[in-house]
Amino acid sequence: MILIIAKKDIKLFLKDKKGVLLTFLLPILLITLFAFAFGGIGKSSTKMTRIKLIVSTEYPTEKINKVIADLRSVKQIKLIEKPLEEGLELVKKGSYVAQLVLETVIENGIPRLKYQLFVDESKRIQVGFLEGVLRQYVVKGKMARFFSEKFAGMSVKLRQKIKKEMNDTFQSSGLEVVSVSEKEVDKDSLGLIQAVSGTAIMMLLFSIVAVGGGLLDEKENGTFKRLITAPIKPLHLLFGKLVMSICVSVVQLLMMFLFAWIAFDLHIFKDVISLLAMVFCTAFAVSGFGVFLVSIVKTRQQLNGVSTLIIMTMSALGGSMIPLFVMPVFMQKIAVVSLNYWGIQGFYDIFWRNLSFIDILPRMLVLLGIGGVMLLISMPLFKRNLQELS
Amino acid sequence: MIQFEKVSLAYDTHQVFTDLNLSIPKGAVFGLLGPNGAGKSTLMHLLSGLLQASSGTVMINALDVKQHKLQVQKDLGFVPQEIALYEAFSALENLHFFGSLYGLKGNLLKERISELLALIGLESRKNDLLKTYSGGMKRRVNIAVALLHNPSLVLMDEPTVGIDPQSRNRIFEIIEKLKEKGTTVVYSTHYMTEVARLCTQIAIIDKGEVLVQGSLEELLQSSSKESQISISFQEDVRAIELLLPVDFYWKGEVLVLKCNKNEALTSVLEILNLKGLNIVNIDFLKPNLEQLFMELTGTNLRD
Question: Of A13, A147, A198, B84, which is least packed with CB atoms within 10 Å of its CB?
Answer without folding.
Answer: A13
